[in-house]
Amino acid sequence: MVLMSDTGGGHRASAEALQAGFEQLYGDEYQVDYVDIWSNHTPYPFNQLPKTYSFMVRNSLMWRIGYYGQQPRFIHVPTQTISSLFVSKQVSAAFDKYQPDLVVSVHPLMQLVPLRVLRQQARKGGRTPVPFATVVTDLTTCHNTWFHPLVDRCFVPTEYCKRSALKNGLKEDQITVHGLPIRPAFSGKIASKNSLRKKLGLDRHLPTALLIGGGEGMGAIEQTLDALDDRLGGACQVVAICGRNKALIERLQNRDFPGGLKVKLCGFVTNMAEWMSACDATITKAGPGTIAEALICGLPLVLNGFIPCQEEGNVPFVVDNKLGRFERKPERIARILEGWFGDSREEFLQIAEQARKFEMCEEALEPKFLEAATAGCC
Ligand code: UDP
Asked: Which parts of the sequence belong to the Diacylglycerol glucosyltransferase N-terminal domain (predicted)?
């Protein structure tokens, strides 16, 4: 039983990756269910988590206050313990329904409460608790709620996250550094760029950028399209993936691009491996899932923003490892792509090569950043 929530797109993608990975390795030996405990198995207002998240992350100051306010153990442990008094009956019913042999959490708010409920159930039944693993889906700066000393195993993507886990009381032998769980479609046999472009309705010859803002379609997607239209016009095409941002899709559907930029507009897509493999570069906020997927596909990255706190460390992670550039201003992003698809092609090819061979578990970063990231304030 994998515990996830649609706060962003990364936790669902990780849950799907684990489900598909189990199936690939073990066939039908295991049944893997992924479940949003908070949305589907808790009462109001706890079941509003994804909506609250979506609102909060768009209000930077509010999100920072909430995030850092809950960072100390002496705050989040009592807060979540009190929450569990209100939700434990329903959460317990969910475990009764799914009868898991193993629980895996891919969400920072799904450690303390489920572990507490599983232990209560075990005590009542006179048996040992169901094994519990955490799979951390942030890359560098992680919230402390990810780390609970009672988990049987904690998988972290990078050495930085391992430091945070140790700082939060986990022992060396509880932690495995293992990269991020990425859906097997990214590592399987994928069709050639040419045939994917044909299948997806893209021009086969134009340089192509993928423009995305995580599962929620965040960031300056429309302004970036305008800037690309101004500077590159018909010399390139863009796949704009708006995720669950319906308002943005509706707005863009009624837009035209006077410079002649070709735009392929998508909502939430379920074949990201195909879209990425059909493109040449990615413009994205610093979401860990999108960064990891783009690297697998060898796509140079332009990071155009980040969710405050948990994604801040991902910017130096990409820039210091020479996997891409960070630039907020749409006009400058357009200038970077103009260079990459034109005079600075050499730089572009070098970054693409570095992305392809990059090993997440062995990354190198400025020690100064490392200190800041592990102190929880970047
Ligand atoms: N994603 C997807 N379809 C979409 C938009 C996003 O499958 O239409 C996936 C994307 O491939 C990535 C995840 O959602 O795996 C986004 O995760 P990330 O960590 O980049 O950002 P988040 O949305 O969690 O903030």
From this structure: 11-182
Same domain, 143 and 216: no
Question: Could you tell me the pTM of the whole model?
Answer: 0.92
Shared domain for 48 and 196, answered yes or no, is no
Same domain, 252 and 238: yes
> Using CA atoms, how far apart are residues 344 and 327, in angstroms rounded to an integer?
17
**Helix H segments across 32-155?**
37-41, 49-57, 60-69, 73-98, 112-125
Domain assignment present for 171: yes
- pLDDT tens-digit series, residues 188-227: 788 999 999 999 999 999 999 999 999 999 999 999 999 9
Structural domains in the chain (count) = 2
Torsion of CA 176, 177, 183, 189, to 10 degrees: -110
What pLDDT, on the 0 to 100 scale, is given for residue 376?
45
Q: Is the bond leading into 100 cis (omega within 30 degrees of zero)?
A: no
Enumerate residues lining ligand 1, CB below 6 A. 8-10, 13, 214-216, 241, 243, 268-269, 272, 287-290, 293
Mutate to test the pocket of ligand 1, among 18, 269, 272 (most ligand atoms within 8 A of CB): 272
Span from the CA of 289 to the centroid of ligand 1 (angstroms): 6
- 3-state secondary structure at position 216: coil
Nearest residue by C-alpha to atom 22 in ligand 1: 8
Place 95 in a pLDDT band, splitting at 50, 70 and 90: very high
Is 145 inside a domain boundary? yes
